[in-house]
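Could you join me in thinking about how sequence relates to backbone shape in a protein? Label the sequence line and the structure token line clearly, so we can match residues to local backbone shapes. Once you have written the record down, we can walk along the chain together.
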Amino acid sequence: MKAGSLRLPIFAALATATSSIALGSLFLKGIWFWPTLAAIVVVTAGCEGARRLSLSRTAVPLGGLVALLLFLLVRYGHSEAYLGIVPSAGSLDRLGDLVSRGRADIERYAAPIGVSVGVEMLTVAGVGLVAVLVDLFAVTMRRAALAGLPLLVLQTVPTAVAPDGVSWVAFAIGGIGFLALLLAESRERVSRWGRPMRYTAERANYRPDVETAPLGQVGRRVGATALGLALVVPAVLPDIDASGWGFGSGGFGPGSGGGQEVAVVNPILDLGRNLRRQEDQLVIRYRGKPTYLRLVGLDQFTGKQWRPSELHVSREDDNVEDGLGTPPGLGGTVERTPRTYRVEIDDLDQEWLPLPYPTRRVSIDGTWLYDPVTFNVFGENASTRDLSYTVRALDVQPTAEELRSAAEDGYPTSLNRFLDLPADVPSEVVIQTQEVVGDFSNHYDQALAIQDWLRDTDNFTYSENVADTVGDANGSEAIAAFLETRQGYCVHFASTMAVMARILDIPARVAVGFTSGTADGQGNRNVGLKDAHAWPELYFDGVGWVAFEPTPASRTGSPPPWARGGAGPTTPGSVPSSSATESPGANGDAPDSLRNRERTDIPGFDTQSGGGGGGIGAGPVRVPVIPLVIAMGVLLLLLVPSVTRLVVRRRRWARARTPVEQARAAWADLQDTLVDHGYAWRPSDTPRTGIARLVATRNLNGEAAEAGSRLADVTERTRYAPVTPESVGDVRADVDTLRAAMGETAGRWGRWRARLLPRSTRAVATAMSERLADALDAVDNAVATVTSRLRLRLRRT
């Protein structure tokens, strides 16, 4: 195939780029657009290069596909490719891995989602394929209209998936791009008729043999009209929310009272696998005082596992950049020191944000929310992968005396769930708990007794290879097996201590995150997957949630100072001095604004794929929003003709002030009424002849026939003789009489047809379109005149 002008390839690429803007409603950030734009340019260059080589039409798209593949390799798999661009098994595996990760992100989150590397690559590849198809249809096949099909995909996907659909601005920009492509293709066709002649200063009155101005005028008129409709229709119709179809069930959706639904993972299920990895993988680097980085507190014990409970957030009130609330339960006398941390996350894919406790504020890109009841921080359908942020937190230093003197009864009702235990807790766990605490009656002393008993290497052995005995479970059966075999890793130690604490009526839960990592000698601390850890958190009135460390010292080092029965600074590598975690509220109670919020579903976690959460409850009831919106839209469209007819009638009679104007308004209204009922008035009939024919055809008699005769008489007299108000009479009442009579003779369907879909409104639509066309012609002529005069002046100068 021979290559031609670059006009069509450029406009094809422009149409793809402008249409891809509609995808912006699918993402939280716009970082996807620039690599997508680069991919469109590369694909266009590849296709045009194939045409320049005079390849066949079927081979031209292959040039674009090869260029797209090379671009993906350079951007996403260059480290494994030969010379950075030559595909290798490793580079192709890298692309395949990114595809899998991108698909997992898309399936896990609801739009708008964060732009991970996998999601970005899928977006770039998808738009690149659309660019190949647009170039094939518009440039290679010279069928620009067919290019609208792949471009329509870029508009319909966000319309069906994004909660807010596609904005009218993005839709308009895409429409302009497609319109420009159509006009460019039309110009290419006209140019093949022959060389167009130009006006010159010497022959200003010369008319070319092929006059293309009218064709361009028609094209601009059609394009402007279509674009106007494209802008008006989305503006008057309600937005379509895909949630009615169940899209994005794992993401946010509006709930009663501002609550939001969030996709949740349960990191404890992946912890054992991470600890047993052959090689460690760096996932977090942070600068600041050594501290545990907590992902989430698991506050619900079902008997089969620990898991996070359903969350309640308000997007307006619970954004971490606006600051977190007062640390739950933390009293004013407890020693605390403000700390600042700078955290960088590499390849860690979590919805939960790793943070020291208690965090006060987070400076971070994207929308990250916290649950004021649990203080868990999670992204609005975002991932922690390739994320950096700054944290301001408190370094809390409770003393043993403060913990020992904490009140042990009268907990608020909001703490009841942190005491709940299933009925199937093995009796041996209860008996063992009583034996361990012995005569200790104070909650703090009981907690120390359980912690020290579990940390004693004479009692338990730390082991990550317990698949044949305890396994990776953390429920009642696993705890019983752990107490029997006396072997396990941090999950089993933390789960056991938390259950024992609840048996003793101490509010407790399990925290999952990372230990403080290791120093790199440059002021940073590196945290790998092998630093994944779980520890129990117990609530003490006036102090809040406090971390304990039952896992043996071979894994964790020294426990925090308050867990050693004394006070003092925390040593590097040990449990942080600020590792206490959250409780229901500053006074233990959840705010009233949260109590009545609608409870939302948290999707389950696939343990085989390493995702999050155990299966939790049924999802929220899905209201069929889209069918309802479609029905409302159809109803509105049905009302447009009847409302238009009503408006025209009222305006017509409002303007009729003189007897002559009233007679003319009555006759015009009668003509519209006849058209609405499907009666064809002969243009050659006089008013008197036409009324007589109407009365005979529709079998009108009595008042209807008399009203028709009066209207015919008044109309003829107003046309040919002066009239007085008394001679005109009540012509509007006569029209209403004829309208009612026509309805009776038309039957039920005919009456409703005339009311809902009056045929006379076609004339209104025709008149409006003619006025719009005239206005477009006026603008087009004005632009042509100005352009012609400027061209002549430039040539003369």
About this structure: The chain has four domains: 7-194+211-245, 268-595, 626-759, 760-797. The longest strand covers residues 335-345. Residues 761-796 form the longest helix (36 residues). Residues 760-797 form one domain.
